[in-house]
Specification:
One of its GO terms (biological process) is proteolysis. It comes from Azohydromonas caseinilytica. Keywords: Aminopeptidase, Hydrolase, Metal-binding, Metalloprotease, Protease, Zinc. Belongs to the peptidase M1 family. By secondary structure, the chain is α+β, with helices and mostly antiparallel strands. The protein contains 27 helices and 32 strands. The strands form 8 sheets. It has an 8-stranded mixed beta sheet with strand order 6-5-9-3-2-12-15-14, with no helix packed on it. β5 and β6 form a beta hairpin. α10 crosses α14 and α18 runs antiparallel to α19. The model has no long low-confidence stretch (mean pLDDT 98). Bound molecules: arginine and zinc ion. The site of zinc ion has 4 residues, from α2 and α3.
Length: 887
Amino acid sequence: HLVRREDYLAPAYRIRSVDLCFDLEPAKTLVSSRLQIERDPQAAPQPLRLHGEGLTLLRVLANGESVSFRHEDGSLVIDHPPEDASFTLEIRNSCCPEKNTELSGLYTSASGFFTQCEAEGFRRITYFLDRPDVMAVYTVTLRADKAKYPVLLSNGNLVEQGELSGGRHYAKWHDPFPKPSYLFALVAADLVAREQRIRTRNGQEHLLQVFVRRGDLDKTEHAMNSLIASIVWDETRFKLPLDLERFMIVAVEDFNMGAMENKGLNIFNTKFVLASPATATDVDFFGIESVVAHEYFHNWTGNRVTCRDWFQLSLKEGLTVFRDQEFSMDMSGGASARAVRRIEDVRQLRASQFPEDAGPMAHPVRPDSYVAIDNFYTATVYEKGAEVVRMMHTLVGREGFANGMTLYFQRHDGQAVTCDDFAQAIADANPGSALAVRLDTFKRWYAQAGTPTVTARGHYDPETGRYTLTLQQRCAPSPGQPVKQPFVIPVAMGLLSHDGTPLQLQLEGEDASAASAERVLVLEEAEQSWTFVNLGAVPVPSLLRGFSAPVILDDGLSDAERLVLLAHDTDAFNRWEAGQRLALSRLCAAASGQAPAHLDDAFIEAMRAVLRHPTLDASFKELALQLPSEGYVAEQLAVVDPQRIHAVRESMRAQLAQHLHADWMWAWEHHQVREGYQPTVAQAGRRALANLALAMLCLHAQRSADPVWPGRAYQRFKDAGNMTERLGALSALVESHAELAEPALARFHELFQGDALVLDKWFALQARAPEHEGRVFARVKALLKHPDFSLRNPNRARSLLFSLTMFNPAAFHRPDAAGYVFWADRVMEIDAMNPQLAARLARVMDRWRKLAEPYREAARAAIQRVAAKPDLSNDVREIVMRALADD
Ligand code: ARG
Ligand code: ZN
């Protein structure tokens, strides 16, 4: 059953206020709901249809009297509601939180009751108009056993609490802001809180709380600091204040996603709250900072202004990802640290969104249809959506964008709106801007799926000093979209001389005084040319600086030109990119059998120069010295042989380890952090580079039978004062020293037995180990039966299964098809308890059509086997049907 964007109808009934009462029991929770409903005077008389899913209905009263109703595909239909313009509806129903393994709606986890309502979980709690354009004021009373669930929370402000008979207690909460049901939340659990009172600019006092299980309190400092930094940042950068007296974050072990922005009561996966130097890596610390910020920023972009319907999801997600990316960049410090963040974001986009956009699940940033909305919390809606916002930012400038945001809130505060409304506000605040003059064309980014390819070719005339740059764009068809119109593509660019000097850019017909070292060209037709004049030297073009648009760039540059950029580009993103391109062309040539897997001296020397560079940051070096991932290489090839790509990349990695051996030793020695642990960009960069150096030294040791470095790695593993270094050493051993890896893994397990998030790392590390004679795959199968393993907990399931299937192609894609058989079995097994999680796992086969034989046929058979299962969830069915669509 397909939901279509074009079928949107404004609601005929609106719910203005809700009074909810919960009697919480794991096996049977009673919900009483009193709804104040208004009829749209314009709408024709019609039945009232309330969403409901898996509920037991006990009673319905309209204006205090019984009313006839019926059930129709899950909905509760009242054919003749009272004819008054406004009436009350009272509903009593029950649900069963302890059987809720989907983790959508009201469910139990170790410490108590939790909710997850986005997108359509509220209907699994009670009957309601469960759509984001119906906004109501909530008053919520919770009743529960006091000893088991001492903490009772819901959105807004606590208005009353007290004792009840039978060891129970209650709390009553009121949220003054009208909100859609997907932002409702409650928590009833055995938790403790870190608290902090702050005073914001306008002089208002706020209480900030981070709730966790007893014993985890010492791991909440970073989350609290991140929250305070987010509040300060949003006030400063966008003039958006905290509008609540109380802002709560609650951590829960069982959670399908990262976190959820429920008004005033954010609920988080523990992974994005809990951190201590001993148990969390630098990457974890940054993840917490960015997710805390993301959810906090939703309070304005998502909650104060929300989505009219779920097709508009990127309205809040793309914008909020853009905001959290900017926050993380601002928190990182200087220009080069910002560039490192940008590189990481782009790497992520290319690793997840580009393949999505080229595969069977390709959809526009604003999708046109869906079967299961939960399948559309995608890299396209989030990360590409953020790129679309970033392009607007580029086209109107930083200040223009801030003005656009101000206008957006002036116009739409308190409303449920569309992506069009957002783009219109940004354009209207900047009349005559590069965005405003082509807004309709620009908005094709919302409507057309697929990643455009931009081809750039330059011609320099030494006689006249003129350089003509021609840009062409094209975009392959996507499902349902055979032909694409040209996109508006901002191309930030500069020109360098061959000795690396930035050249002044003066366009033909422009005054010399208009010249600058960088500019943004706006490509909006299939082909356009620009001519630069008065160039004194043959230029090397540096295009798409900072990755100014989410496109694939074919710049046709030679190795020599890329080496110039790698050595001299003033744009750190393009400097990194030049090195990646040099590596990528070598990887692809070898993986497609056109060249041996051999790294030439020029490449090795360029990498050595980066590693030894006197001024580049360690974090930049670490990114620049990594070869593109196997997945990224696969995306470049028409036919993919995962085993071959793995072999080629491993061989090149070994060459880097060998030829730069002395340099890696230098890097290891010179990047030790001797100060106390701080999760700063500067320290993290040093640790990352030292870890990479250690991995390379151990890799080389493996090939040269040298026992020294593995011995040092083991020592480091034992002595490390923080998880980043400990895990770095352990992973170096797991990668290249099987004998020492075994005792190290055993010791690690023993040390961290009680810590779920660290055990996740333990499982993940083993599933991500380089495959050798099928041992990794066999180990994953054995780990499934480990007493600490469970498919019920999403983090644990992901630690093993996603690590194998998404990040270890050589272990997963086996010529004997056993990997795919294993995949299909797990998808079906998980689907029976948690369809959202199963659908995510199902997506790892998106790109099966690109596989070489025998993988391709085996993959098809496995997907078909899943598709043939009779009682498949809508979520998984949508994924496998799309995967098989052209069969
Ligand atoms: N809005 C949440 C966030 O972006 C994600 C919620 C995802 N929910 C879902 N059912 N897929 O942080
Ligand atoms: Zn979000």
